[in-house]
Design brief:
With 203 residues, the protein is an alpha/beta fold. Helix content is 24%, strand content 32%. Helix 1 (36-45) links the parallel strand 3 (25-29) and strand 4 (48-53). Helix 4 packs across helix 6 (194-202).
Length: 203
């Protein structure tokens, strides 16, 4: 598998290229502002991008959708309720296979109602659901601390410990992590009841 991580845009966003091999097929996850380094790499690797996958609909995660779709002909996919111009509306548990790499969609509302994770080949793109050492905020329109608790403790922490975490922003001490490390070191993921978590998020 070929994986590239790009820190681009004014908000320390991470955009990802995932493909089977150089000259093969792949996807781009969360194309943000300042897409030129991503486009340059796509050309250098001679990749055919089949899908643009958004973890959620906030502008800094979808800003490059239009340009990338125009340049590559890729289809835009996101959770079915995302208020975006979608070519493919995704559902929880759905699997998209590109270049022989299956990617599973996991619906994880909380930061936004349409937040999802993309799980592939021992890696998980977490968007703004989980950062390295942190989690996404829930005080923006559509945010829900109750829903985020269910997503983090009911889905994220059920992933294999060795799974590599690919966050949506460069907000932590390292650009990637693992589920095991986050379980151990991320103060957001300390054992709490849902009520305790909601109070914690409000504080």
């Amino acid at each position: 598998m070929l994986l590239r991580q790009f820190r681009i845009g004014p908000y320390q966003n991470f955009t990802y290229i995932v493909a089977n091999r150089e000259g093969g097929e792949g996807v781009v996850i969360d194309p943000s502002f300042g897409l030129e380094p991503v486009l340059t790499e796509l050309d250098a690797l001679s990749l055919s991008i089949r899908y643009i996958l958004n973890t959620h609909s906030h502008p800094d995660h979808v800003a490059g959708n239009g340009e990338l779709r125009e340049r590559t002909g890729a289809k835009v996919g996101a959770y079915q309720t995302a208020p975006l111009d979608l070519d493919r509306k995704l559902s929880d548990g759905e699997v998209i296979t590109v270049g022989g790499i299956p990617t599973t969609v996991l619906h994880t509302p909380g930061h936004t109602p349409d937040s999802v994770l993309y799980l592939f080949e021992g890696h998980v793109a977490t968007g703004d659901t989980l950062f390295v050492g942190e989690c996404g905020r829930t005080d923006l329109p559509g945010g829900s601390s109750e829903a985020l608790y269910d997503s983090l403790f009911g889905k994220v922490l059920h992933l294999d410990d060795a799974t590599v975490v690919l966050p949506g922003h460069d907000y932590g001490p390292t650009p990637t992590s693992t589920i095991a490390r986050e379980r151990s070191e991320n103060y957001v993921l300390k054992p709490r009841t849902k009520d305790e978590f909601v109070r914690f998020m409000r504080s």
